[in-house]
Structure formats: C-alpha cells, structure tokens
Amino acid sequence: MLSLAVYVLTGIRRDHALASEGALKYFLLGAFSSAFFLYGIAFTYGLTGSTRLDRIGSLMAAQAMAPTPMQLLAVGLLLVGFAFKVSAVPFHMWTPDAYEAAPPAITGFMSTGVKAAAFAAFVRVFLAAFEPLRPSWSPILWIVAAATMIVGTVVGVSQSSVKRMLAYSSIAHGGYLLLALLAANDVGKAAVLFYLLTYAVTNIGAFGVISVLENTDQPNDRVRDYAGLWYTHPALAALMTIFLLSLGGFPPMAGFIAKWYVFSAAVKRGYTGLAIIGVLTSVVSVFFYLRIIVMMYMTTTDTPARVPPIPRMAGLALIVSAILVFYLGILPTRVLDWAAASIATIF
Asked: Is the separation of the CB atoms in 18 and 93 below 8 Å?
C-alpha cells in the first residue's frame, strides 16, 4: 500500500521531463520485486501454516541444522523483496532516477519514511522469524551490505546532480543499516532504530533546503548551482552544511554517533572486516558532501541562486531538524535507551 502511493507521488510533476521515466522505472521494478516478496510469503506460509513471526521462528528452529530447499527459497525470495525496498545493491537502480524525478519534499519522504518502514519490517521479519536460519542468509547479506556501501559511495562521488548524489548517499547509508542488521546483538538492534531516526532527521533537513532552492525560476539541482550560496543566503548555506556534515559522520553531529554504534556493534559480533569497509566508504563519502560545502563557501558566481522568501513553517522545520542533529549527536543517551527499550518489547 505504501509503495503504490509513492509510485504516484514520484510522477506527480507531469510537466517535469524525468517524472514519467522515473515513476515508470520505479513502478515496474517495484512490481517485479513485490512478486518475489509475495512468493516468499506464500512459501513461508506453506511451510509453516502460520503468519505469526514467533510461530514461524519456532518452526524454522526445528530444522535449523538442516534447512530444506523450500526454506532457503522462501528466505531468498523475501530477501530480494526487502533488498529492493531498502535500495540494496544490486536492486538499487531505480533509486537515482526516482529521487531525481520526484519533487524534493517527496524525495525526502521516500528516503526517510519509506526506507525506515522497509528496514523496520526487514529487521522484524528476519530476526524474529528467520534468525534460526542465520547461517544460511548471513553470508549473502554480508556481500549485499558490502556491495551496497561500496557502490553507493563510489558512484555517488561522480554525480553532478545534488539529488542523485543524495540518492547514492541513501544507498550507502542503507549498507550501514544492513551492517547493523547483521550484527543483531542488543546494541545492533538499538543501533538500527537510532540510525533510522538520525538519518531521517538529517535527510529531511537536507531535502528541505533543496526544496527551498528548487522553488525558483531557475534550476538549482547541480552542484555548481550552489556556488556562493553562503554570500547570498548564509542561513540556508549554514543549515545545509550541518546536514551534510551529519551525513558524512562528522562529530558532534548525529551521524557520527549513529555510525559509531553501528560499527561498534558489528565489531562486537565479529564482522570486523565489514566494519572496516563501512569506515573506509564513510571516509570516501565525505568527498561528495564536502564538494557542496566548498561550492557554497569558496566559490562565487555571476548568476547566484535566486531564492524566494522562505515560508515560516518551512524555516521552522529546517531549524528544528538542525537542532535535533546536534541534540542526537551530543546527548544521544536518552534516545538510545528508548531504542533499547523498544527493541526489548519487540524481541
């Protein structure tokens, strides 16, 4: 149901040249992945006769030492469906086109609300129902997580469109969340919730700034369009800097604490190699965030972006997002305790 609404929202700008292409690609690939997902649900029900996750988990545990081909097929089909929803490699190709085609406000929702819902379901299903089969699916998820972090970072470096750049950033961040899912200890489960919250706050702020800049009579989606923004609209430049630094994992921003907990959980669970890949890709990703910051502060242009007056509620939302980025980075304990308590009630 959520996906159907997002398909429509992606192509809502009928006057936009890329809207129809992005929405159609998203719809076709989404329908294809949903078929895999539904087949996975059907096979799981056929094997267990239940849709309750705890019941499925107990029945899977009975054959965990020697899983049947049908069990592995069910897990594989569900894994494909979830991988598409969270933009994991190699099921990520729709993401840049859909993000670029949709209005910034819709893109912000797609990159936060949709991704958060998909990851919440992913964690719930695999850790509650298929945890007994972890030896079968964890090696595959290891490869997917590594590929997602690497592809999202490497391809993002070469992007000239800010929205496409943040799309590949979203893909890379999905890899970090998959790493937390693999860790799956108490810290790792809480880290998933905390990471989703910090990423949502940060990305909503970043796309909020993009939305303000896009509401002009000139296109402002290229990195070069941000040239000299500090000199013409210092408040927007400062807010965008905060959000980009948080996405890059700079202290004392929320993104730094979120990545710290994810990598710590991975090391404690024995995924040191994958954690190293995460750290390296996080360092490389700093380059494309700093590209925009350098453009805003150290470059001038004869045709600066013309920004209309910012609506009061939009400005308030950006300020609140920036405050939360600092709050979650400096005082994360209360939120982490809430995340741990929430996990304890679920698992």
From this structure: no
pLDDT tens for residues 248-262?
A: 999 999 999 999 999
Distance CA 154, CA 161 (A): 15
Q: CA-CA distance, 69 to 73, in Å (whole number)?
A: 6
> pTM to 2 decimals?
0.91
What are the structural domain ranges in the chain? 2-346
Cα separation, 171 vs 150, in Å, equals 9
Q: What is the pLDDT of residues 129-187, one digit of tens each?
A: 898 888 889 999 999 999 999 999 999 998 888 989 999 999 999 999 999 889 877 67
Q: Where are the alpha helices (DSSP H) in 86-133?
A: 94-101, 104-109, 115-128
Contact 267, 135 (CB under 8 A): no
Q: How far apart are CA 1 and CA 314, in angstroms?
A: 28
Task: Indicate left, alpha or beta for 204 from its phi (over 0: left) and psi (-120 to 50: alpha).
Answer: alpha
